[in-house]
Amino acid sequence: MRETQKNFTRRQALRSTARGLGGVSALAMLPGCMTVHGVDDQNGQFSSSSAGLPSADAKLDEIAYAMLRHEPGRATGLGVDTGEYAHWRGTFGATGSEGRESYKATLSNLLQDARDYPKDGLTADQLIGFEVVESAFSKAVEGMDLPYGDVAVGSWRNAPYLVIQNVGGYIDFPRHFGATQPLRDAQDVEYYLGRVNEVSSVLDGETDRIAEARGMGVVPPDFLLDKTIAQMEANIADAANNGGAYVAPLLTGELQPAITASRQAVGMVNTRLIPALQRQLDELKTQRSLAKSDAGIWAQPRGEEWYSWSTSASTTTSLSPDEIHEQGLDELATLHGRMDPILRNIGYTQGSVGERMQALGDDPRYKFAEGDPGREEIFEFIDERIDWIKAQMPRAFNQLVNPNMEVRRIPINEEAGAPGAYGGAGSKDGSIPGRFWINLRSTDLHRKYDLPDLTFHESIPGHVWEGEYSNRLPLIRSILAFGAFSEGWALYGEQLADELGAYDDFAVGRLGYLQSLAFRACRLVVDTGLHSKRWTRAQANAFFVDRNGSKPEEVAGEVDRYCSWPGQACSYKIGHSEIVRQRARAQSEMGDAYDFKAFNTAVILGGNAPLDVVGKTVGRYIDTT
């Protein structure tokens, strides 16, 4: 992911926090353990559990690379397109419906291979590897059986609309070239040009598929199309400016072959890429002429079936929309019960919790300055909180990682359709840092009492921290991520920060943390409200603002995101509640033997997995302690 604007100050565009984890040199640090595809660690050859059968580790690596053959761009992000796979850096793979069907066939075959592999004598980690393959691939194949939409294999972005305000190549490619595609030597330049040349084919494949979906009656809501059309027009305008974000990385360094190749890249952009974007824009405008304002997936053909699949994929549970809705209401009431006495203690005594949080949000003491001065203030604020939480990690874990990470502003032309922030680990080989992306279209999106919690969620001990551990697992475990775990862990990371004292001297900050949890409980209610109970967009916005005191500007983008990613918003609180439930289980069953640091370490070392597998990880921790 990367930025496309060329006129940021350095502190607006990029803030590096790649400093070492202070005070941990004498503590256990996790070693890197990336395996070599098809090679046994002991003797450099395949080992076998029976004649002709690869070892479990080799089989899992084989599955990983077979999957990545269909997603070579993802292999680049992981840093594993090296050696015999280096040529992958020059392609994005098969496109359109043909590419989707080919991928589906591969996943079906790999799923059968994983199920057939003998499990006797495997280690716990190897068993988990096969379990996550079966869970991720079976759910992905189910999604690909649906006639439209984008299925994320071992990821979280399942979307019924292949091109929309936060989905599509017109968003993904500029990010990829600016932040992921390597440019180290002349060969990399050739690969770069190969991929630029392929973008138009991928875009046309998307355009064909959304036109096919339109023929089935699938047309996104009008308000999402309005955002998408505006963003695509901005993308086209940027590309028309000497190639824009697609060419800029070739000119930012001192690699002469890259500078020379920039002229060729501009030609590709002008003659192939921009016309493909224009064809996509024309299709979106056709859809806009047919669009209605119904926000939920229920309004689309087979919408209820699509939502049932997407909620199960997102939560890794069999919970029904009604059950998720009721859990959200119950958890919201509990969290507001914790917030009420804090509000009273600081002088906010009148009205509902939501009304009082709205009043708190208007307090100028907790606002950042407007414009660039406020953006600079936000970056400094984030830096300070990251420094603090890094110093606390030895109190929460027995084994530590040392994240190399950056704080970046979300590109300006994406901000309108983007959430308030997002984050994740870097590449498996360490060449690409973890990143915390912050939306700064307005400094009014953030408050001094909620930005600490957001920082802990996206960076440490949340997404960047968790991803560093996953990157030390075998390749397939780094690829296959489950939103219920990764988002649940990030919320648990917020809880850890509170338990480590982040708000002991800042009671208003604890309100921000509790409001964050309440916000995720609201998501359970709103997502199911939109897609199952036929709420309007206005109803969804009002629920956040009125019941939780959320900021209207923040909520508008959030609700639109739920409309384009049905079910994804349910993963956060479902995952967090399950991790907390497992901790209570460990405390109850272990008594005095329970250890805070040991539990946290066991869960994060178990890796990103479906929630039932997380339960097995905790069970092994209890049994072996």
Explain what the structure shows.
With 625 residues, the chain is mainly alpha-helical. The protein has 24 helices and 4 strands. The protein has a 4-stranded mixed β-sheet. The longest helix has 35 residues, at 256-290. The radius of gyration is 24 Å and the shape is globular. The two termini are 41 Å apart.
What is the beta-strand fraction?
under 5%
Morphology: globular
Q: What is the helix fraction of residues, given as a range? A: 55-70%
Strand order of the largest sheet: 1-2-4-3
Structural class designation: mainly alpha
What do the pLDDT scores average to?
A: 90
Number of strands: 4
- What integer value in Å does the Rg equal? 24 Å
Summary, kept brief:
By secondary structure, this protein is mainly alpha-helical. It has 24 helices and four strands.
List the helices and strands and how they pair.
Layout: H1 10-13, E1 14-16, H2 56-68, H3 72-78, H4 96-116, H5 124-144, H6 169-179, H7 186-215, H8 222-239, H9 244-252, H10 256-290, H11 303-315, H12 321-345, H13 353-361, H14 371-392, E2 405-409, E3 421-424, E4 434-438, H15 451-458, H16 463-470, H17 475-479, H18 483-499, H19 507-531, H20 537-548, H21 552-564, H22 571-590, H23 596-606, H24 611-624
Parallel strand pairs: 2-4
Antiparallel strand pairs: 1-2, 3-4
Helix pairs in contact: 2-4, 4-5, 5-11, 6-7, 6-9, 7-10, 8-10, 9-10, 12-19, 13-20, 14-15, 15-18, 15-19, 18-22, 19-20, 19-22, 20-21, 22-24, 23-24
